[in-house]
Amino acid sequence: MTSLTLHTHWEFKQRDPAAALQDDFRSHTGWNGATVPGTVQQDLLQHQLIVDPYYGLNEREVQWIGEADWLYRSAFQVSADLLEAPHLHLTFEGLDTISTVFLNGQEVLRSDNMFTEHTLDVKGLLLPGENTLQVLFESPLKVGHALEKEGGVRAAWNGDTSRLYLRKAQYHYGWDWGPVILTSGIWKAVKLEAYSVQLADVHVPAEVTPDLQTAFIPVHVKLEGDVQEAQVHVRLLNPQGIEVQSQTLAAQAPTSFLFEVDGPQLWYPSGRGNQPLYTVQVELHQHGKLLEEKSIRTGLRRIRVVQEAVRGEKGSSFTFEVNNEAFFVGGANWIPEHLLLNTVTDEQYRARLVQARDANMTMVRVWGGGIYEADVFYDLCDELGLMVWQDFMFACGMYPGDEKFRASVRLEAEQQVKRLRNHASLALWCGNNEDYQIAQAVGAYGPGGDESKFHAQHIYEVLLREVCETLDPQTLYWPGSPYGGADVFDKTIGDRHTWEIWHGPMAPYQEYKNYEGRFVSEFGLMSAPSVEVVQQSMPEHERFPESETFVHHTRALGPNFKPDGARRLAVYQAENVRGHRNLEEYVYNTQLIQAEAMRYAYRDFRRRFEGPGKYAVSGALVWQLNDCWPVSSWAIIDSAGIVKPAYHTIKRELQDLTVGIHLQDGVLETWLCSSLRESRTLQLKRYAYTLQGEKVAEAVQAVNALPARRTDVSSWQVSEQPMVYFAELLDQDEVVARASHFPEPYKHFDFAPRSLKVDVQEDGVVQLSSDHPVKGVWLSAGAGVSWSDNFLDLRPGEVRVVHAAGLKTAAVRVSALGAAEPLEFRMLVNR
């Protein structure tokens, strides 16, 4: 096979509606060099023809781009030898979105789905020497509005409602955390392939026996073309890269192999074991010549979602088991890293997913309003041990269900399932995001709903299920998220989105335990991004929380879909902390509230993972891991890759061992959570202090943490006066988990860090101590510094040690609850 990428010599221009199309393609003016793969906005920015849409209020200045049509053109050379090949195929891996392709002036393709690949037989259309490609991209907004006028306005949360008629990344239309940037362009690879026979698909549906002692690795090879005298050679390499088995067969269409492995090296989620990956190498030979080869990496594991009775309660569990082990799944929702997708590098993917792994997460959910992510994303999840909950790309809307729309969706789903099904990390396919929820909201689903109005229900319950069960039967298909059978808000079945806190009634974040679900696949609370992001994205005179620019970068839609984030942030601040005096304190206060909310959420949800037969809550995925632009949002990592305090809170609550405390009517409830496979005898220390740092009481006892469940510990009767409580869990002499309780609401008390000491050492070691209880100590030293721990609650008299990887400055800035402004501590020289 000969494969040529056609990524050079591309030009683009805005379509002149007054000119005939081919005249416009042949025009000599208005053209600029185009990046392929890429988008119009990416190139306009590169050529300095538009301002940065992420800066200030510039988003408003670039809306005209999505309302215009755009042209791309290129010329490429084809040799006479290449034309002799039996098969010549031109492939567009992704066109965004309403596009018409011309080859040598002849129309060869019309596409209206960003997520589908198109392969064209161009034998007989190519010429020796120069050939031309031309692509017209029509305005997605104008085409969408025309379709909406014909089919009717449909209910949608977020973005222009016409988005429902187009198979385009829905977040491009704007979301309650993102801007409106309606991209167009050749956003994936273009290639020309010449062959006699080719490897069209390789499927490796590996299976591990229930006793985990044997793995079966079928290899299904689909060929296209003339298979006469062709052979397929398949090798199996173990995770160390050593060939352990091989087979050769005369090529057929299809051709299947089977490897059997005794004592397989099993793939586990991060923190539960290693991630060994076997490699299946497939070679296609014909007439003694190697024509093509493909390598597929696969992990050997058993993943099940167990839905069984929960002892003493209604409904059923929703519990992930990997290699016969049930465990609490902690993780996050993933949105695309950028609006201009081709600007996201492999290094950026790795950095963000490593951050998730390092926060003790075991799952990321690829949300249905974005994209099916790049191959590198899933490769990294395989390597890092991050299970993937994969949505199909539908979000927050009442989509059409006509035959043409269904046919496009079926092609999209078949291609994406084939592309992703070999990944060890793939744990679940999900039909949509919140489409059942909006259907219930408009009376088309749920108790008393008229399901005849839910036109896309067939897509979620029949079409996508058929595709998944045919092409990837080993992976569970789930109709939607949330989905609980007859009622999407059911707390006892399926998965649930908990938005009573922040959205809805705006319940206090301390009440997460009242809004649980068997698997909580969305919940969150907003905060501002880092001060660094504010400084990078706004002019200096607008860098205050009430400015027009700051509010523009604080979306969060409320009633009537109007931006409401600033108001809701103000409410949660007013309920919990004293008013901010400057930008730095505003950022700190909002991030503290987000972190505290996550402490309550993860601690209370994990507390309900009580052991076999009593998996009342089996997982929690925070909304959201990352940001796609500089914004106040629910993300725990901002658009510059800087983690927020909530990141460290979640990291602690997802450790193998945690201790939880809760003050209830003068009694300090205490419990342990373990994800270990065996019991562990530990020492529990509990302390009570006055706000001035005087120790009032201390208790020490031995405790036995049972494996993979919650273990209750006897409660502690304490004073009714406002006190600060600490709990420490020790293994030998090492503190392996901590918890604290400061009296709430925080605004009623003075927690100023009067005696805080911070010792910054040259090797990146930072020591902290205080004579008073200190809440929420946040350390910062610029970009590029990674803290082993942060956002700390300090017990009087203890010395806490954290490590700052990449610390290059002598100064560390320190914020804490009650501090008038950040404190600065410098490294002592000649110590």
TrEMBL record:
<dbReference type="InterPro" id="IPR006102">
    <property type="entry name" value="Ig-like_GH2"/>
</dbReference>
<dbReference type="Pfam" id="PF00703">
    <property type="entry name" value="Glyco_hydro_2"/>
</dbReference>
<feature type="domain" description="Beta-mannosidase Ig-fold">
    <location>
        <begin position="761"/>
        <end position="805"/>
    </location>
</feature>
<dbReference type="InterPro" id="IPR017853">
    <property type="entry name" value="GH"/>
</dbReference>
<feature type="domain" description="Mannosidase Ig/CBM-like">
    <location>
        <begin position="667"/>
        <end position="748"/>
    </location>
</feature>
<keyword id="KW-0326">Glycosidase</keyword>
<dbReference type="Pfam" id="PF17753">
    <property type="entry name" value="Ig_mannosidase"/>
</dbReference>
<feature type="domain" description="Glycoside hydrolase family 2 immunoglobulin-like beta-sandwich">
    <location>
        <begin position="198"/>
        <end position="301"/>
    </location>
</feature>
<dbReference type="Pfam" id="PF22666">
    <property type="entry name" value="Glyco_hydro_2_N2"/>
</dbReference>
<dbReference type="InterPro" id="IPR041625">
    <property type="entry name" value="Beta-mannosidase_Ig"/>
</dbReference>
<dbReference type="Pfam" id="PF17786">
    <property type="entry name" value="Mannosidase_ig"/>
</dbReference>
<feature type="domain" description="Beta-mannosidase-like galactose-binding">
    <location>
        <begin position="10"/>
        <end position="188"/>
    </location>
</feature>
<dbReference type="InterPro" id="IPR041447">
    <property type="entry name" value="Mannosidase_ig"/>
</dbReference>
<dbReference type="InterPro" id="IPR054593">
    <property type="entry name" value="Beta-mannosidase-like_N2"/>
</dbReference>
<comment type="pathway">
    <text>Glycan metabolism; N-glycan degradation.</text>
</comment>
<keyword id="KW-0378">Hydrolase</keyword>
<dbReference type="InterPro" id="IPR050887">
    <property type="entry name" value="Beta-mannosidase_GH2"/>
</dbReference>
<keyword id="KW-0325">Glycoprotein</keyword>
<dbReference type="InterPro" id="IPR036156">
    <property type="entry name" value="Beta-gal/glucu_dom_sf"/>
</dbReference>
<protein>
    <recommendedName>
        <fullName>Beta-mannosidase B</fullName>
        <ecNumber>3.2.1.25</ecNumber>
    </recommendedName>
</protein>
<keyword id="KW-0964">Secreted</keyword>
<comment type="similarity">
    <text>Belongs to the glycosyl hydrolase 2 family. Beta-mannosidase B subfamily.</text>
</comment>
<dbReference type="InterPro" id="IPR013783">
    <property type="entry name" value="Ig-like_fold"/>
</dbReference>
<dbReference type="InterPro" id="IPR008979">
    <property type="entry name" value="Galactose-bd-like_sf"/>
</dbReference>
<comment type="subunit">
    <text>Homodimer.</text>
</comment>
